[in-house]
Amino acid sequence: MLISNIEIIPGKKISKHLGMVQGNTVRSKHVGRDIMAGFKNIFGGELVGYTELLQEAREEATQRMVQQAQAIGANAVINVRFSTSSITAGAAELFAYGTAVVIE
Amino acid sequence: MNYQNPKIPEGINISDEHPLKDFAAMLIGVGVFIVAAFVIIFALAEWLVRFVPFEVETRLAESTVVGTLVPAVTTASKTQKYLTALTADLVQQQQLPEDISVTVHYIEGDTVNAYATLGGHIIIYQGLLEKLPNENALAMVLAHEIAHIKHRDPIIAMGRGVTIALAMASLSGVGENAVAETLINQINFLTAMAFSRDQEKDADDEALKTLLAYYGHIKGAEDLFALFQHHQSFEPPEFLSSHPVNQERIDNIRLFQQANNYTGATRPLPPL
């Protein structure tokens, strides 16, 4: 599965356009990480737990988007975009979307 | 370019796992966490309470148990004097730390009981004293209760009780002032709480050593439990009762007797 955030793949011809596919997830870290992040707020620095949270959420969202693409017979997703939003305190939504295509 | 818009199958972004399964897993997780937290707090409280100075315990006893469980005025009767003297002898044998003082209180009444409570107070009822066949059995009772005081068992039991009360209060979400109030109201109940079976067994062992040191033998110690066995028509199974079952305690005494094979005669109780 080819995933790209450009609209055309150089040197490849898109033979089929299958519409939009999307993957999303809302995740949180465990309470221990939240407490650690609370402490980190006092001293400053990277909130490693939340960086990890977003990393995991991105992977999950991408994987779900790819699953959708596979389900409709695509072999590439182009023009992929990510978006994120905060749902509740300590939880984040990651949303990945793109266009499912078949390339030759 | 061929353009299609096929339907994407459901359930990729939303898993079809039953939410109750998730809920059950989380409930178990939280349950395990709470239990573990209580066990740790419990053990800590029990361990820390040993470091409370006896002086503090005495003051605590004055404001709580003295007057309710312990009569404020002790009658200077012959029996009381005899008990005080015997207790003093046994205390000497047990080599209590200097700061710990033991006071025995004789209470008239039919109750067949004796117990140790906060502040080094031992309460012994007329009902029990009348049933005892000899002084050695009485010494076993007193030495057992003195051992509880030596091991700081009453304050450990109180620490345990306070922890349970606090845990209950925090679980039921009572306000801060209410917690303090409830604790004060319940302190009599908390201090009267039973000691654990291990504490009882340790006190028995210590009492036997005391008897051996005082009389040169442990004859008569067994009589006490034989008496209990005789008078209790129904004995609750051990797991339901904080005291080790009487037969087990008798066996324990016999083992001790075998290991320390001294013989002697029991001393009769003076006319009381």
From TrEMBL, chain A:
Q: Which residues form a coiled coil?
A: none
Q: Name one Pfam family in it.
A: YbjQ_1
Cited SUPFAM superfamilies: YbjQ-like (SSF117782)
Which family does the similarity line name? Belongs to the UPF0145 family.
| Annotated HAMAP family | UPF0145
Q: Which protein are we looking at?
A: UPF0145 protein BST96_07700
Originating species: Oceanicoccus sagamiensis
Automatic annotation (TrEMBL), chain B:
Among the Pfam families in the record, one is Peptidase_M48
Q: Which cofactor does it need?
A: Zn(2+)
Q: Any binding details for the cofactor?
A: Binds 1 zinc ion per subunit.
Could you tell me which residue ranges the Peptidase M48 domain spans?
Answer: 78-254
Which chain regions cross the lipid bilayer? 23-49
Which terms in the GO cellular component ontology are assigned? Answer: membrane
Question: Which keywords label this protein?
Answer: Hydrolase, Membrane, Metal-binding, Metalloprotease, Protease, Transmembrane, Transmembrane helix, Zinc
Give this protein's Gene Ontology molecular function annotations: metal ion binding; metalloendopeptidase activity
Q: Which Gene3D superfamilies match?
A: Metalloproteases ('zincins'), catalytic domain
A GO biological process held by the record: proteolysis involved in protein catabolic process
Q: Which family does it belong to?
A: Belongs to the peptidase M48 family.
List the protein's name. Answer: Peptidase M48 domain-containing protein
Source organism per UniProt: Oceanicoccus sagamiensis
